[in-house]
Design brief:
Order of helices and strands: EEHEEHEHEHEEHEHEE
Number of strands: 11
Shape: globular
Radius of gyration: 17 Å
Strand content: 25-35%
Oligomer: single chain
Helix content: 25-40%
Distance between the termini: 36 Å
Structural class: alpha/beta
C-alpha cells in the first residue's frame, strides 16, 4: 500500500538515513524489473501519448515514461503544493518535461528543462507548447548544468536523476542507470550550488534503493543541508524527496 510522509521540519546535514545493503533476492528483483522495463518501455521505438499529473504528454522513444515510472507523478504532485510565483526554475533530467510543466503550473515565471537526451529535450518543448506553457518553459540538451554560466541563475532547481548505479546500455537506459558510482550525476550537487540564487533550493528525488550514503556525501561536500520534504512508499521501495539549501 502507498504511504505518504509529511515534511519533516528539522534541518540536518546530509541525509536522514543510511543506505541498506541488498541481499541476493533484492538484487535479483531489481534486475528482473529492469529487464522488463528496459525491453518493454525504455527501448521502445514509437512515440507514445499519455496523461500524467493532469498533462497530456507525447513521450518520444528513449524518454522516461511518466505513466510507468511513477516517481515523476509523485514529484509533480509535490510541486502542486508549492507557490513558485515569479520564480526562475531549472529541471535537470527533464524526460518528458512533466516536472518543468508542474513548476510552471505552480507559478514559475520561467522554467528551463534540461536533459542529456536530445529526444527528451524535444519532448519537453513539445509538451510545454501543447499544454499552453510554451511561453514560460524552454528546453535544451545539456549534461546537467555544465553548459550554463557559473553564477546565480535559479531560485529553484529540480532533479529526479537515475536511481541506480551501473553502466547504462544505451541512451534509453540512462534514465535508469547513472553509471558506476553514479558517475553521470555526481557533479549535480556542486553545479547546482554554484547556480542557485541566495536562499534558493534544490529538490532532488532519490529511491530507497539508491546509494544513500554516496548521495549524502555528495550533498555534504557541495555545502548543502538536507530536509525530508516528501516520501511515497509502494510495494518494494520508497521515493524520497529532499529539499537542499546552502549551509
Amino acid at each position: 500500500m502507498d504511504r505518504i510522509s509529511r515534511s519533516v521540519d528539522s534541518d540536518f546535514t546530509g541525509l536522514d538515513r543510511r543506505g541498506t545493503p541488498h541481499g541476493p533476492f533484492r538484487r535479483f528483483l531489481r534486475d528482473f524489473i529492469h529487464f522488463f522495463s528496459y525491453h518493454l518501455i525504455l527501448s521502445r521505438q514509437s512515440i507514445r501519448t499519455t496523461r500524467a499529473a493532469g498533462f497530456r504528454l507525447r513521450v518520444r522513444p528513449t524518454v522516461f515514461h511518466p505513466r510507468f515510472f511513477l516517481s515523476s507523478e509523485y514529484f509533480a504532485k509535490f510541486l502542486d503544493g508549492l507557490d513558485l510565483s515569479g520564480k526562475s526554475v531549472a529541471d535537470i533530467g527533464t524526460g518528458s518535461g512533466i516536472l518543468a510543466l508542474a513548476a510552471a503550473r505552480a507559478g514559475a515565471a520561467e522554467v528551463l528543462a534540461l536533459d542529456i537526451n536530445p529526444h527528451a529535450a524535444l519532448s519537453a518543448l513539445e509538451n510545454a507548447q501543447a499544454n499552453g506553457l510554451g511561453d514560460r518553459v524552454s528546453a535544451a540538451c545539456m549534461n546537467l548544468l555544465a553548459a550554463l554560466p557559473v553564477r546565480p541563475l535559479f531560485d529553484v532547481i529540480l532533479s529526479s536523476p537515475p536511481k541506480h548505479a551501473g553502466e547504462p546500455r544505451d541512451l534509453a537506459d540512462r534514465g535508469w542507470h547513472a553509471g558506476p558510482q553514479y558517475r553521470d550525476v555526481a557533479a549535480l550537487f556542486k553545479q547546482a550550488s554554484e547556480r542557485l540564487k541566495p536562499d534558493g533550493c534544490l529538490y532532488v528525488m532519490v529511491s530507497s534503493d539508491s546509494d544513500l550514503d554516496l548521495f549524502g556525501r555528495l550533498i555534504d561536500e557541495a555545502g548543502f543541508r538536507a530536509r525530508l520534504a516528501y516520501e511515497r512508499s509502494f510495494y518494494i521501495e520508497s521515493m524520497i524527496l529532499y529539499e537542499l539549501r546552502a549551509r
